[in-house]
Design goal:
Helices cover 73% and strands 0% of the residues. The chain has 196 residues and is an all-alpha fold. The longest helix is centred in the middle third of the chain and has 26 residues.
């Protein structure tokens, strides 16, 4: 590793540790979600430095996209008032700008330090995605399937926790069909000028 790559690695690692600590230490769920985005982005930068570009892209696309879903679940579980969130949006703007600027600095540092992976010892060029796919769907197929089931159970659990029971009047079709016109219609004699 070159000295620039070392500095960038320690920069990403420091930001990752600070952001991860802030995720669990802040009281505001909006701030926690912003720090979580910064944590995922810093981890993706470390993956790029290690030559695992595919994992970095998946981390950014899947997990940073899932932060929005996570935040929605938090809002649904805690009954956060949307009007209060909109009123407090300006209060969160400085933190959002700092996190955005940190991500931009990390992206610039990553462009300076990144060097594509060299060929393997055997001399053949093997793509990360191909190698990962071969390992994931052959040697690690059962752990991959178990992880998929755990994530599915977590999704179902989150939906069950946020589901609110609504009282719905049920209709009885046989009673509706059995009604006569005398039960359904009432005739009233209305004098002229006394109507609605």
């Amino acid at each position: 590793m070159s000295s620039v790559a070392d500095v960038v690695f320690y920069l990403f690692a420091a930001v990752l540790l600070i952001a991860a600590t802030r995720v669990i230490s802040v009281r505001n769920p909006v701030h926690a979600a912003l720090f979580l985005v910064l944590t995922f982005f810093s981890a993706a930068g470390l993956f790029v430095l290690l030559g695992a570009e595919f994992l970095a892209a998946i981390l950014v696309m899947v997990y940073m996209g899932a932060v929005a879903v996570l935040f929605l679940f938090v809002v649904m579980l805690l009954d956060v008032d949307f009007a209060a969130l909109r009123r407090g949006a300006r209060r969160h703007l400085p933190l959002g700008l700092v996190i955005g600027a940190t991500i931009l600095v990390e992206m610039g540092a990553l462009l300076l330090a990144y060097h594509p992976a060299t060929p393997t010892a055997t001399g053949e060029e093997v793509a990360n995605t191909l190698t990962l796919g071969r390992l994931l769907y052959t040697r690690y197929l059962y752990p991959f399937e178990i992880a998929s089931l755990v994530l599915l159970l977590a999704l179902v659990g989150a939906i069950v926790l946020t589901l609110r029971q609504r009282r719905v009047r049920r209709q009885c079709i046989s009673l509706q069909v059995a009604r006569t016109s005398a039960e359904a219609v009432t005739l009233k004699k209305v004098a002229p000028g006394e109507g609605a």
